[in-house]
Amino acid sequence: MTTTIPYTPAVEDRTASLPLRLMLAPAGTAPALLDGAWWPRSRDLTVELPALTAVLDPLWGRITRVTVNPTFWPVIPRKVPVDGHVVGVGWFKAEQDPHKLLLFSYTVGRWDLLVIPPETSPATAARLMTEAADPLGIRTASALMNAAEERRIAEETELSLVSVWDSEGGHGAGLPTSRSPARAVIAQVSDATEGI
């Protein structure tokens, strides 16, 4: 299943029903390190988990438990009421990748989702979601986030260098701004036939 990723501003009115930003590996593919990616709009599990479980419950069976790493979640509630049931929430600091959310269901098992930070740019989030949903993916959640950060730094460095290059005159730097016409050299050439 693939869900589209509409662009929405980082700060928005939570009263409006917003589409879930989620991309999952195709159904029936061999297990990879990640089963997809989730791009929540905030770091509030009480607000974000109900929408996520509403989409995943029909696909994967009732989600009963979720675990996170507390590194990027300021508040971790013990339980979150969702549509018709309660999801238990736990955390593991050393044992769980800080960029991953684990979802558990009694009927089917466990799924690992990359959690993309809410403040991530839409272009970067789209790339991360595509990579995390790739059934042949071999990168961990943190490896994907580190690669995205390295790419962001490289792009900023390149933009900075281009800006400096342009401000210093670009490829024409060091050349005179106006050229004076070439001087003609006039010399008297003797006629070779003279004197014969």
UniProtKB/TrEMBL annotation:
Superkingdom per UniProt: Bacteria
Name this protein carries in UniProt: Uncharacterized protein
